[in-house]
Write a sequence for this structure.
């Protein structure tokens, strides 16, 4: 696979995006605003995705989604942060890429199915482990999850083999 070069706009100061009200409502923090090493590693490790339907959960800046779109995949990228989705749409346009970017919560049910689900460094909180496993199972027969050494990843790995019919591929990257 050829190299993909992207020009990205990013928030100058992710800390400045912290909103006390949003945190009080649903413990929301602007994790999306950082360019995390696990996302870069996942983007570099993508298999041949041309012609595949792909979803990236908790996409943040969406680097894996953008790379998949550049390599010919039909991509849906989702994050619960509306600001992340707006910036991802802008970055897709600035790089001449087409993808669908949606403000969605993986804890909600979706009526769609994909060939491959992606997630990079999304297990910041314990409360996300089971919903992520459930959504991976419901959305695609194959998942690549880039882990980054967060405390709740061990719980994710412990539960993954015990979820009925769950068959995501868990890849530790970076």
């Amino acid at each position: 696979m050829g190299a993909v070069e992207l020009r990205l706009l990013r928030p100058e100061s992710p800390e400045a995006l912290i909103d006390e009200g949003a945190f009080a409502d649903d413990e929301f923090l602007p994790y999306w605003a950082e360019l995390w090493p696990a996302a870069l590693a996942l983007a570099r490790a993508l298999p041949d995705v041309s012609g595949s339907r792909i979803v990236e959960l908790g996409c943040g800046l969406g680097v894996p989604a953008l790379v998949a779109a550049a390599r010919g995949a039909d991509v849906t990228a989702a994050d619960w942060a509306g600001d992340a989705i707006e910036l991802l749409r802008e970055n897709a346009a600035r790089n001449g890429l087409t993808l669908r970017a949606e403000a969605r919560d993986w804890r909600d049910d979706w009526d769609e199915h994909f060939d491959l689900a992606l997630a990079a460094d999304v297990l910041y909180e314990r409360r996300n482990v089971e919903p992520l496993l459930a959504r991976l199972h419901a959305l695609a027969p194959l998942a690549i999850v880039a882990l980054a050494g967060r405390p709740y990843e061990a719980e994710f790995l412990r539960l993954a083999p015990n979820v009925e019919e769950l068959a995501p591929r868990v890849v530790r990257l970076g």
Remarks:
- Residues 162-174 have pLDDT under 50 and may be disordered.
- The chain has one domain: 34-172.
- The domain at 34-172 is CATH 3.40.50.150 (Rossmann fold).
- The radius of gyration is 15 Å.
